[in-house]
TrEMBL record:
The keyword ATP-binding applies. GO terms for molecular function: ATP binding; ATP hydrolysis activity; ATPase-coupled transmembrane transporter activity. SMART domains: AAA (SM00382). This is Unannotated protein. The keyword ATP-binding applies. Residues 228-248 are annotated as: Disordered. The lineage of its organism: unclassified sequences, metagenomes, ecological metagenomes. Transmembrane segments: none annotated. InterPro entries: AAA+_ATPase (IPR003593), ABC_transporter-like_ATP-bd (IPR003439), ABC_transporter-like_CS (IPR017871), ABC_transpr_CbiO/EcfA_su (IPR015856), ECF_ABC_transporter_ATP-bd (IPR050095), P-loop_NTPase (IPR027417). Keywords: ATP-binding, Nucleotide-binding, Transport. Pfam families: ABC_tran. It comes from freshwater metagenome.
Length: 465
């Protein structure tokens, strides 16, 4: 059995009376495979959640939305959804149990589960023991686990929301190949949201574009992504240089020596790292999923202790390693952006969230002006009164960056800052990062975005297993 999709004049209204989208109308025949594109915040994730029957209670929908002629809530066993946030999907403590959870819910006999679980994990390249703890996975590994859990169910309608956003290039290609095999063999219907259509050009047959007017349909077109020229001046090389031991560099603002990193109570991910980042420099940290990039970012940011070696920040800064500083001292000197943006939201509105860190540091008028300028810089002025948790994935990412940047700490640590961004907002981030570098910040960026590395980084550190 395959799935048809019919959407007629459908739209979602939030509790505050605002609409997530214009009225939407389109139809998919059984077995069609499409890519859904649009600006960050256009409503793509809201539409996928509604198609999966999990749009939630914080709003109401109008119009018609049918899967195989039924409301999505009545067809859930036939629909598989991979969410945008990889940290919101794991429900069990071990990866084997996590994949088994869905199979148990649809009544698969226990004797048939092991083969389905193993096949699904192999399909997404997650080569780990079945009892491996889910909380020890990197963001990219969590994304693979989420997809494995859905693929094991063999749904007739597969909905993928930014499935490759947290993956290294090799992992992204593996995911696309896995989806291609599963989607083609049983003639599955597929809707994928991705800002990188070139990854899917051999899988999908057409493109749906979601904007303020609604949805328009067109044949798939893959064009070269928009970029900005690299570097700050014609004399600067467009490619970042690799970090080399004992290389002569400017006086570092952020320094690590003989550093070993890993999550508390977990294995050591990297050892013997020597890192220097001077004021006015951007260091890009790259590498495959699971090699310790996020653990390194948290360690450099003083949020977890090093397993060996040390981290220091040049004066004026508190004495001692950053992980022993107070939270107030950390916020003043090091700004961190986590891989999961929701983990750092504490304000009831976007504006309050950005302004909380400035309390006690500025006069009211100065605070208001600084918050306004930061919201404008990161394309969040229109969302200033929204609850942070109701933002789109791309908007949440930009808010987490705004939260870190508004206090203007000398050291900035970013984990996957371009996640969920369309071409326009991504280029705006490139401009913002160059501006921060020119203002003298020492910046570390963990990323899989090769274009972003070439456009903003002065140096590159590639971690290997």
């Amino acid at each position: 059995m395959t799935a048809s999709v019919v959407v007629k004049n459908w739209r979602w209204m939030h509790d505050d009376g605002t609409f997530a989208t214009a009225p939407l109308s389109f139809a998919l025949k059984p077995g069609e495979r499409v890519i859904l594109r649009g600006r960050s915040g256009a409503g793509k994730s809201t539409l996928l959640a509604a198609l999966a029957g999990v749009a939630g209670q914080s709003g109401q929908q109008s119009g018609e939305l049918l899967v195989n002629g039924r409301m999505p809530e009545d067809a859930r066993g036939q629909i598989g959804l991979v969410l945008q946030d990889p940290y919101s999907q794991a429900v069990m403590e071990r990866i084997g149990d996590d994949v088994a959870f869905g199979l148990e819910n649809i009544g698969v006999p226990p004797g048939d589960m092991n083969a389905l679980i193993s096949d699904a994990l192999a399909a997404v390249g997650l080569d780990l023991p079945l009892d491996h703890p889910t909380d020890a996975l990197s963001g990219g590994e969590r994304q693979r686990l989420a997809l494995a859990g859905v693929l094991a169910l063999r749904p007739t309608l597969l909905l993928l929301d930014e499935p490759t956003a947290n993956l290294d290039p090799k992992g992204a290609r593996l995911i696309c190949d896995s989806v291609a095999r599963v989607a083609r063999e049983p003639n599955m219907t597929l809707i994928v949201v991705d800002h990188n259509p070139e990854l899917w050009q051999d899988i999908v047959t057409r493109e749906l574009l979601l904007d303020e007017r609604g949805i328009t349909e067109s044949p798939l077109t893959v064009t070269a992504p928009a970029t900005l020229s690299a570097g700050r001046a014609p004399s600067r090389a467009p490619k970042p240089t690799e970090v080399k031991p004992n290389e002569a560099k400017p006086t570092p603002l952020l320094r690590a020596r003989n550093l070993a990193v890993g999550y508390p109570n977990a294995r050591v991910a990297q050892v013997d790292l020597d890192i220097d980042v001077a004021a006015g420099e951007i260091l890009a940290v790259t590498g495959a999923n699971g090699v310790g990039k996020s653990a390194l970012a948290l360690t450099l940011g003083g949020l977890i202790p090093p397993m060996a070696g040390g981290v220091s920040v040049a004066a004026p800064a508190p004495d001692g390693p950053p992980h022993k500083w107070s939270s107030r001292e950390l916020a003043r000197h090091i700004g961190s952006v986590f891989q999961a943006p929701e983990h750092q939201f504490i304000g009831s509105t976007v504006r309050k969230d950005v302004g909380l860190g400035l309390r006690g540091r500025s006069h009211r008028a100065q605070l208001s002006a600084q918050v306004d300028a930061t919201l404008t810089e990161f394309n969040l002025a229109a969302q200033h009164d929204q609850n942070p948790f109701t933002l789109s994935g791309g908007e949440k990412r930009r808010l987490s960056i705004a939260d870190a940047v508004v206090m203007r700490p000398r050291v900035l640590i970013f984990d996957e800052p371009t996640f969920g961004q369309d071409d326009v907002t991504r280029l705006d981030l490139v401009t913002s990062f160059r501006r921060l570098r020119d203002a003298g910040h020492a910046i570390v960026v963990v990323t899989h975005d090769e274009r972003f590395v070439n456009e903003v980084a002065d140096h590159q550190l590639e971690l290997t297993a």
